[in-house]
Amino acid sequence: MTDGHASAASTRHIIQTPSAVETLAARPFLNEPDTGIDDALGQIPTHSLPNLTEIFGLPDFEWAARRHLDSASYAWYRNAAGGEWSYRNNLEVFGRINMKPRVLVDITNIKDSLPTTILGYNFSAPFFISPCAKASYANPNDAEDGLVKGAAAGDILYIIAAAKPKSSQVLFQQLYVTNNLTSTQAVMRRAEKAGYKALILTVEAPASGDRQRAHRFGWQLYKQLQNMTSIPIIPKGITSVEDARMALQAGAPAIFLSNHGGRQLDTSPSSLEAAIEIYQQAPEIFNQVEVYADGGVRYAVGMGRPFMYANMYGSRGVKQAIDIMKNEMALDAANLGVADLRKINASYMRWENNGWYS
């Protein structure tokens, strides 16, 4: 989310207490909201995909994936770290912030305000497809191509994990740092040559020695990487105001709030909580750089799992997921009384007298 498209994430800090964690763990977790699809399509044989015309919301894609994919493939997308508290929190944290609707607002042109820019590139909506690996698990034939082509058809950004652009389509590439900087630089040069417009440096996952090197050299490593490439590098995995400040001091053109979908450190804060902390303690950051976010998002900003499930249908499914998102975003904004998405801000949120907040 950019400053012009600040969402519910730009409100204030949520304090999670041990008792709150215990309360969450003690009650059932609703991973898929009830959209009525099981009543309508539950008779479809296992491993069969329902017709795409029967998919009306993003949760429907996961329902279809849970029944269609083999257990190992579904588990790859669905799993999370430890007791999955962070994954649960990613999904549920949005429900703990109340909306503050406005009325008697002219919302007739709300859809016209959906287009946005990300790092100066034009897109048709203020949300994107977050990087996820193993696209072939959902679609062995199309794999990454389904996501690339679907993003192109819907004119949104895809932060790709592993594939090459086939046209002038704007794509960002995910980057993991290894202990071999020569190898990392080779990856960056290939990304430049292939036409990627930015690198998303994943700093929240310890894979490939990434975290150890980052701890040893701090943000000096980021500056070193910047000097190895001509395209922007965006750090992904910011979950605190301190790291957000350090990223800006290191010259990051944007920051990406994420806890890796709750798949790395259980009890790590959600991107919403991180955004609220930054908004409370350093609100100027939202005016200084673009701020992106994912993790538990099912109705705006960056999403990973829902699009991986949609890719079971190839580019058609990805495009339909994009269309669903655009329609829901416009409807929700209209009901909230937002006339222009580019002007949404924290005044549309209400948090007084709520025990979760401070």
UniProtKB/TrEMBL annotation:
Domain FMN hydroxy acid dehydrogenase residues, every copy: 50-354
Q: Name one Pfam family in it.
A: FMN_dh
Q: In its keyword annotation, does this UniProt entry include Protein biosynthesis?
A: no
Tell me yes or no: is tRNA processing among this UniProt entry's keywords: no
| Keywords in alphabetical order | Flavoprotein, FMN, Oxidoreductase
The active-site annotation reads: H260 (proton acceptor)
What molecular functions are annotated in GO for this chain? FMN binding; oxidoreductase activity
Binding residues annotated for glyoxylate, in chain numbering: Y176, R211, H260, R263
Q: Give the binding site residues for FMN.
A: P131, C132, A133, Q174, T202, K236, S258, D294, G295, G296, V297, R298, G304, R305
Cofactor(s) the protein requires to work? FMN
Note the superkingdom of the native organism: Eukaryota
UniProt xrefs under InterPro entries:
Aldolase_TIM, Alpha-hydoxy_acid_DH_FMN, FMN-dep_DH, FMN_HAD, FMN_hydac_DH_AS
Family per UniProt?
Belongs to the FMN-dependent alpha-hydroxy acid dehydrogenase family.
Q: What is this protein called?
A: FMN-dependent alpha-hydroxy acid dehydrogenase
Tell me what organism the protein belongs to: Zopfia rhizophila CBS 207.26
